[in-house]
């Protein structure tokens, strides 16, 4: 089956069952976190993983990799994959993400709503990721990436890095941000794209304000 889905809104897992209401990660969610950390540990080496996409293209159509996985009509075809490979080759290792239960809970709130509605995007009932974090008792200093449609943890991460059709490659740059130290992930079914996965990232486990920049010491005049 072919659907006109961008990679920015396309990735994840079938058969996840009901959306988790707790922050305890499922096996799949833990797998996505592990894949993110494998990428961040050595982005330059991870670039070679993306080469596996190239033989699957027929023009702009990307054939589904696993049984039952949908084909995706991309915007840019192999050009976006080649660009991602070149970009990652110049990146240095980054700090690994630590699991945050609070970030995962706010991500799960979004999955719970969109699983039922079939909507896509970062807002539910006018509330974005910052508002969802504040409702959970955290702060709004978070960054969110979402995928719909794939069946593997690697597919989720690959899709965000390739970032087909997204001006500025915002999802890729979010995953490459060195100030992001914590992540919370929630995945579940989706009425339209079958599956979805939300990743919330922050410099802190609760989205609290970042510390003020350090000022150089003031030296008294002699």
SSE blueprint and pairings:
Layout: E1 2-3, H1 27-41, H2 43-46, E2 57-58, E3 61-62, E4 71-73, H3 78-89, E5 98-99, H4 101-117, H5 129-135, E6 143-148, H6 153-162, H7 170-175, E7 182-190, E8 194-202
Parallel strand pairs: 1-4, 5-7
Antiparallel strand pairs: 2-3, 3-4, 6-8, 7-8
Helix pairs in contact: 1-6, 4-5
InterPro entries: CAP_dom, CAP_sf
Domain SCP: 84-195
Region (Disordered): 201-222
Order of helices and strands: EHHEEEHEHHEHHEE
What sort of overall outline do the alpha carbons produce when their principal axes are compared? globular
Gross CATH architecture: 3-Layer(aba) Sandwich
Strand order across the biggest sheet? 1-4-3-2
| Tally of helical runs | 7
Q: Can you tag this structure with a few keywords?
A:
222 residues, alpha/beta, Pathogenesis-related Protein p14a, four-stranded mixed β-sheet, 7 helices, 8 strands, 16% strand, disordered N terminus, CAP_dom, signal, SCP domain-containing protein, CAP_sf
Describe this structure in words.
Keywords: Signal. Residues 1-23 form the signal peptide. Residues 207-222 have a biased composition (Pro residues). This is SCP domain-containing protein. This protein is an alpha/beta fold and 222 residues long. The protein has one domain: CAP (Pathogenesis-related Protein p14a), CATH 3.40.33.10. The chain is built from seven helices and eight strands; from the N terminus they run E-H-H-E-E-E-H-E-H-H-E-H-H-E-E. Strands 1-4-3-2 form a four-stranded mixed beta sheet, with no helix packed on it. Strand 3 and strand 4 (71-73) form a beta hairpin. Helix 1 packs across helix 6 and helix 4 (101-117) crosses helix 5 (129-135). The relative contact order is 0.24. The model is unreliable at 1-23 (pLDDT under 50).
């Amino acid at each position: 089956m072919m659907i006109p889905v961008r990679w920015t809104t396309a990735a994840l897992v079938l058969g996840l069952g009901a959306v988790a209401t707790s922050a305890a990660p499922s096996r799949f969610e833990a797998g996505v976190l592990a894949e993110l950390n494998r990428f961040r540990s050595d982005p330059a080496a991870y670039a070679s993983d993306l080469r596996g996409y190239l033989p699957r293209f027929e023009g702009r159509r990307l054939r589904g990799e696993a049984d039952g996985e949908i084909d995706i009509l991309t915007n840019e075809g192999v050009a976006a994959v080649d660009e991602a490979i070149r970009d990652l080759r110049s990146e240095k290792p980054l700090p690994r993400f630590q699991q945050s239960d609070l970030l995962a809970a706010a991500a799960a709130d979004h999955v719970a709503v969109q699983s039922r509605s079939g909507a896509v995007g970062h807002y539910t009932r006018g509330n974005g990721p910052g508002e969802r974090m504040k409702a959970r008792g955290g702060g709004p200093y978070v960054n969110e990436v979402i995928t719909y449609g794939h069946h593997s943890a690697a597919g989720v991460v690959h899709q965000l890095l390739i970032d087909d059709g997204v001006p500025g490659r915002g999802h890729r740059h979010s995953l490459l941000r060195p100030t992001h130290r914590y992540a919370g992930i929630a995945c579940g079914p989706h009425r339209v794209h079958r599956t979805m996965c939300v990743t919330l990232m922050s410099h802190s486990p609760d989205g609290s304000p970042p510390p003020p920049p350090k000022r150089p010491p003031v030296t008294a005049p002699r």
